[in-house]
Specification:
Number of helices: 3
Helix content: 10-25%
Order of helices and strands: HEEEEEEEEEEEHEEH
Shape: globular
Structural class: alpha+beta
Largest sheet: 8 strands, antiparallel, barrel
Strand content: 35-45%
Distance between the termini: 4 Å
Radius of gyration: 22 Å
Number of strands: 13
Oligomer: single chain
Strand order of the largest sheet: 1-4-5-8-9-11-12-13
Length: about 240
């Protein structure tokens, strides 16, 4: 029997639907400074460098072999080549992420003013330590982002919903399992020094801060769903051969 085009389409649609139902919004990678200390910030918002969010010494790995103490601890939700999911002494590099407009202010109460500073696009790269050959773990582009925090507060966040992953071991693993290569980032700013404020022209005032956070993807296919895809494809091929 020869499978009709409509039958093939129905079976394919069922497989795709099951894959979508068994997938979920998911954290892709997380990172934490090692060690975390206010004396060694991970980022600075520098007014002298084009009002840009830039990496500071806390984001720089030691480059030692074997890995030393420094940079960030990087954890991937999916195994990369060789099965690894954890990397220490990792460097995070940022480019771009400058602001060209004043910060927006929102009153959340008599003594609570939320500051929101938009940032233009940029890039990011997580690079492993010398012991791992300075390998690209995950790199990509940031379409746009924002810094937010309450005026006078020492904590805040950096958010973006326009992340595109472009290279690295984690990127290769995403492509291999058919997962999306776009996502979001959510970072927590800690020990913001000086605390959040604005300049005379309304821009967010400069600061240094510790950072931890995560990058995500819309979903990561579950192993059971991937098995179903394989079984469905095998069944279609077998039936077509018999036909």
């Amino acid at each position: 029997m020869r499978l009709s085009t409509s039958t093939v389409s129905i079976v394919a649609a069922a497989v795709v639907s099951t894959l979508a139902l068994s997938a979920h919004a998911a954290q892709l990678v997380s990172f934490d400074p090692a060690p975390i200390t206010a004396a060694l910030p991970e980022v600075v918002y520098n007014l002298d460098a084009g009002h840009a969010l830039k990496t500071a010494p806390g984001f720089a790995g030691s480059g030692a072999t074997p890995p030393g103490t420094g940079g960030v601890h990087f954890q991937s939700a999916i195994p990369v080549s060789g099965g690894a999911t954890n990397f220490n002494d990792v460097t995070l590099a940022l480019t771009g992420l400058n602001s060209t407009t004043p910060a927006m202010s929102y009153s959340a109460g008599p003594n609570s003013i939320l500051l929101l500073q938009s940032l233009n696009g940029g890039t990011f790269s997580f690079i492993s330590s010398a012991a791992d050959g300075k390998t690209d773990l995950l790199s990509g582009t940031i379409g746009e982002a924002s810094i937010s925090g309450f005026k006078g507060s020492g904590t805040g966040s950096v958010l973006s919903t326009t992340i595109t992953y472009t290279s690295g071991l984690v990127y290769d693993a995403l492509v291999a399992i058919g997962a999306p290569t776009v996502g979001e980032l959510s970072w927590t700013l800690l020990s913001v020094t000086p605390t959040f404020g604005t300049t005379a022209d309304g821009s967010l005032a400069g600061f240094a801060a510790n950072v931890n956070g995560q990058f995500s993807v819309p979903y990561i296919p579950e192993p059971s769903a991937m098995s179903l895809v394989a079984v469905g494809a095998t069944g279609l091929i077998a039936r077509r051969r018999k036909a």
